[in-house]
Amino acid sequence: MAARIRLSLIPGTQCDERLWGRLVPALQRLGAVGGRQYECEFVPVQQARSRVEMQSMIAAAHQPDRACHVVGFSMGAYLAMEHTLAQPEAVTSLVAIAGSPRGFGERVVAARLRTVEALRRGRYAGIPAARLRKFVNTGVDDPDVGGVVRAMDADLGKDVLVTQFAEMSYRDDLVPRLAEISCPFAVVGSSQDHITHPDEFHMTAKRAGCELHMIDNGAGHMLPLEAPNELAAILDDFYARHN
To answer: What fold is seen in the domain 3-242?
Structure first.
């Protein structure tokens, strides 16, 4: 009988469940071979209108009597680490993909708020091509990679982008508390990430005393879309050891 492994997936900025559209099938195929049945639930933080609502959605999905394996990507990785520190009894294990636990300094916050105001005043025409190339290294023109990023951005629109950008600007610095995370924890990043500096992944793993997995196949920030097979292999091995 296959072991049932419940995963809760938290997306990043301007993303929804389509972010996981290539990763989940790859993970389920590996699980079938290894006798693991992955049951994936998507936390729709893109529907939240405030950071408090994001936190509430995540908390509602992860109760102590329904503890699960939490996976967060980028902004979602930060939210997953924050949630694990707030409710450790509700998290069986934690995987942080392409994210940083740091807060933002005053200059960064100011720059983010200027961006928010510019977005609020103007018409949002979608993610610019140059910006997309910072997120995606391989597959910018692939409908299953860059096309998915464009589609999520177009469908979620300006309001979601403004909300997430503004609400996450004043996030706490979790670095001093990383050593408090006691559940199995893995950090996954790309050595060619142009959004979250790869040094952040090494720092996070060192401060948390946890596993670090670096993907070095040319993929950029959008690992679930750019490197689904490599990421699935890392996750399947992690859950084989920590279910």
So the answer is: Rossmann fold (3.40.50)
